[in-house]
Amino acid sequence: MKGRIHSLESFGTVDGPGIRYVVFFQGCPMRCLYCHNPDTWSTEAGTLMESDEILNAIKRNQTFYTSGGITATGGEPLMQIEFLIELFTKAKETGIHTCLDTSGILFNRENPKKLAQFDQLLSVTDLVLLDIKHINPDEHKKLTSHSNTNILDFARYLDEKQIPVWIRHVVVPEITYKKKFLIKLGEFLSTLHNVKAIEVLPYHRMGCVKYENLGFEYALKDAPQLTKAEAQRAEEILLESIKAHTGCEFISDFGR
Questions:
Q1: Contacts of 83 (CB under 8 A, 6+ apart)
Q2: 148 with 178: CB under 8 angstroms?
C-alpha cells in the first residue's frame, strides 16, 4: 500500500508533544478560507510513498523523537485512512508515539464500515489534534464549505473512546473572533472529558503567496491579522466559558 504524501518535516515542534516527524498527507475536502496549505487540497498531487519509507526515516534519527513521535497532518489524513492505519500500526509496533492532526470531517458513525475503520485507527492513535473551525453550523459552512456536524460528533466519539485530545481553534477577526461564538465553543468543550489542551491560534496571512503561485483567489486578503492582545482575549473568553459551565478552571497540559 502507498500513500500520497505532500511533504515531510523531520523536526516539528508545534504538532504534538516533543520533537516530531510530521507527515503532510495530500488531499483535503475542506476549503477553509484561511487555509495556508492550499497546495495540499488536490488528491492527484504529492509523492507516492510506502509506510516503511516513512518509518525508516524516523528510525534513522529515533533518538530525536524519544519525547515526541510521528504526527499525521495535511491536508486531511483521514482521506487516506487505510494507509494511515497501516502507518500508525507499524509505528506503534516499534514504540513510536502517534498523533493525528485532523478536522474529523470524514467521521460518520452511521456507516458501519467507516466506523470500523475509525475504531481501528483510534486503537493505534495516542493523541488527536482536533481542529474545530467554527462552532456555529451555518458560519462553519461559510468558512469551510462544509457543516460541522461530523466534526462535533467526532469530538464526542473521541470522548466516548477516551482518546486524549488537543483542541485547536483559529481565531479570525469578524469570523470566529466574536464573543458569542467563543462562549458557545467553551460550552461545547465543557461537555468533553478528554480535552488535555486548548490552542487558540491567531489568524495570519502567511499563505497568501501560495494562493498567488497557484493562481487561486485568497478570499481573506483584506482581513486584518489577529493581534496578540486579541488572541489573549479570545482565549480568556473561551476559558471563562468553560469555567462557567464546569465550575473549574481549565489548565492546558501539553504533555511536554
A1: 1, 2, 3, 51
A2: no
In the 8-state DSSP scheme, what is residue 80?
G
**What phi and psi values does residue 253 have, to the nearest 5 degrees?**
-120, 105
Instruction: Work out the angle at residue 31's Cα, subtended by the Cα atoms of residues 28 and 32, and round it to the nearest 5 degrees.
Output: 115
Give φ, ψ of 217 to 5 degrees.
Answer: -85, 135
β-pairing, 20-25 vs 47-50, is unpaired
Read off the C-alpha cell for 157: 466519539
If one counts every other C-beta atom within 10 angstroms of the C-beta of residue 190, the result is 18
The residue written with cell numbers 492550499 in the block is 38
Q: What is the pLDDT of residues 153-188, one digit of tens each?
A: 999 999 999 999 999 999 999 999 999 999 999 999
Radius of gyration of the chain from its Cα atoms, rounded to whole angstroms: 18
Site of grid cell 487516506: 80
Tens of pLDDT, residues 89-117: 999 999 999 999 999 999 999 999 999 99
